[in-house]
Amino acid sequence: MKLTFWEITPITLFVIFIAPVALVLYSLTGEYSDNWTHLYEFVLTGYIINTVYLVTGVSILVSIIGVGTAWLITNYNFSGKNIFEWALILPLAVPPYILAYTFTGLFDTFGTANNLIRDVFDLGREFTFFPKVRNVPGAIIVFSFTLYPYVYLVSRMAFINQSRTMLEAGRTLGLNKFETFYKLGVPMIRPAIIGGLMLVIMETISDFGAVDHFAISTFTTGIFRTWYGMYDIETAKQLASLLLIFAVTLILIERYSRRNASYSNAMSLYKPLFLTKLKGIPNTLAFLICFTPIFIGFLLPVMELLYWALNYKLDFFNEKFITTAWNTFYLALIAAFLCSILAVIINFSIRYKSNNYLKVMSSFLTVGYAVPGLILAIGVMQMLTYFDQSLISEFSNFILTGSVMGLVLAYVIKSYALSSSTIEAGYQRINSRVDDVARTLKTSGWALLAQVHLPLLKTSFLTSMLLVVSEVIKELPATLILRPFNFDTLAVYTYIYAAEERMYDAAAPSIAIVMVGLIPIIILTRMIRTSRPASRD
Amino acid sequence: MNLISKLLTILVVIFVTIANSFASEVNLYTSRHYDSDDALYAKFTDATGIKVNVISGKGKALMERLASEGSSSPADIFITVDAGNLWKVHKDGMFQSINSSTINSIVPENLRGPNNEWVGIAKRSRVMYYNPVNVSAEEMEGLTYEDLSNPKWKGRIAIRSSGNMYNQSLVSSLIANNGISATEDWAHLFVGNFARKPEGNDRAQIMAVANGEADIAIANSYYIGLMLSGKKGEEQQAAARKVELHFPGQDGRGAHINVSGAGLMKNAPNADNAVKFIEFLLSEEAQSHIVNNTYEFPMLEGVASSDLIAQFGSGFKEDQTSVASYGEFNPDAVKLMDRVGWQ
Fold first, then answer.
1. pTM of the predicted model, to two decimals?
2. Was domain A41-312 assigned CATH 1.10.4200.10?
3. Which of A27, A31, A261, A419 is the most buried (most CB within 10 A)?
4. In this complex, which of A230, A312, A388 lies closest to B331 when CB atoms are compared?
């Protein structure tokens, strides 16, 4: 068999994308230190129990919030709907650890909220109104309200493109509104929901900042404790490999469970959406259901950050700050564009060549998300230094490690999974008969991609850009370890203060992260809204 | 490759080589990231014309980058706020000896590497804070870390989680002096005396004592200066005014000392500049800049601590335990804290 561009490109890219993960897994072939005995005897069980609680709680809450709001927005008209539609994505701009800091600032024994209640009701110092938040339930709330947009976005996209005919048939056959939702609407978009949920789960298990702040021992804090405290990075990598294996298992179970199901629409006839107008109590309820996640996940932390910034640090807006914001912005855009283009090319190759091996490989690219960012970043760094020392040094003096190019490469490797899952979902909605028609017309691969697929993939492409931009703007571990001299991004700026829990100083750059993240979110959601095939505008 | 691109490559190589040989610079990898350090680097550049390039990050992560880059690393100096990290980099053979009689005469032996591979730049102590409303000065008199296992302190002690490196260093120093099993017995009782599940940073512990949630807090010395300065807001300033600072072990070994320190990389491309930079950090100008901005204790004798911290007594007795031992015992300390359930 002669390999063409459509095989060589994806294979090469897969190798590069999977290499950092492979470097982590490689630790399993090495020696197992005595520290394993210690971990096993004293702490591992605790780590696992906390992690399982966390993942279960977050999965349930995120599904309810993400799918519920997406359904309401897609099918109903109610007060504030036009704002909620894009505002529901805003928490994406708030990293979980920032919400964690906000929560302790508000709800600790002598936090703002408890002090306020004491003042208003003239209660004694021993009275504490709000329950403690530095625990697993607190962490579940923090992760759910910052990560639900992943599920909201994919569900919304899937609901928008869902065939109305089937839902209408359901109604005719006697299903009520709620039954239509959970018996037809949700099962039909299950792959999309699961795709979003996978990302949420992996981000939750790999997070360090928020759980560390709450002093909850999870698998990931254990990894860092082993590395930082016991000076044992090999055991840390072996622990991280277990997270990888867990993620792979999840993906396999998911694939197996829908092995025979087909989810493409029976008819691709699109009808314009007719939204049901809600009045009275249903209207108020819908309003509250959409407002609460935005309030907790976005307004609350932003208000607290603004309060900190205004009270303690107003001199942040200077030349250095502008350079930093610019660095962040252009890196995020370049990485987002590269990721999305590569995802289109790879997913096109898989479809065009009907290559099942590539398809399976592609579904495993998300596993990198299950590894704590810094551990993965070290894998990326080792790969870059390998290039530097073995390949590039033969030809030139250019050093990839510590260059902006190296940084972009690291972002692309880290975020590619976000793009790929979005573009793949987009491709699932393009009827394969379109390709057959093109083939009978002897259209070339490139022409099919550029003239037929790309226009149909517009929504997915924009969503992919959006996800990667918000990811890169918040990205910290790879930036910290791979950046050039004297080079900051907003996330680094925030970290430098937040690491010392100097949240007042960290507030201004945190707000900037949110602001820079808002620009693409607002632009892209506007474009997504108008992208339904049958929409008029 | 055609002729033109070959020529271009040669030109670029020549240009880069020339540019490198003329540029006078020093490259830092640092896990210290205070705004005031930038001002300090600017002072060095003004005085010497040597440009300071900085990458800041987490200590352990920077150490991985150093290891991964190996001999091609551009780093000249590694700066960190924990002696354990310096010990580890030295143990992995990535430092070289610093040849400077100036530096050797300033830094005491227990605060540097065996062959001067790294030296302390500024000192901090891990001290106790107490609320005079709940604890009298007489009760605190001569109190050591070891004494805190006494049941009389049950439910009265605030300290942050064991994941924190300052706590790990403190326990390492106890292991270095008392051995593992004695330290484990102590830690077991000590953890039983906690006023609450460990939460928050060092300043949060001081706040807890000011609020009356606990009677004694263990936290680093410079935090009280930072809080009293008002840089952290009025609330923290007011809280700091309510507490007193106690240097532990004044009748015995002395108060636990840790350092911000700098090491010279083995493959430093600008080793001469690097030595000049470390000498500068130990100069009177830099030392008084550091003590007045970060409220650490000076390494150079004759430089006075900031008034905000000196008011609690400047001539306290320092523990002479070699700070390098913190690194050596750190893994034992972490496991010990796991065993006694110190969260």
1. 0.89
2. no
3. A419
4. A230
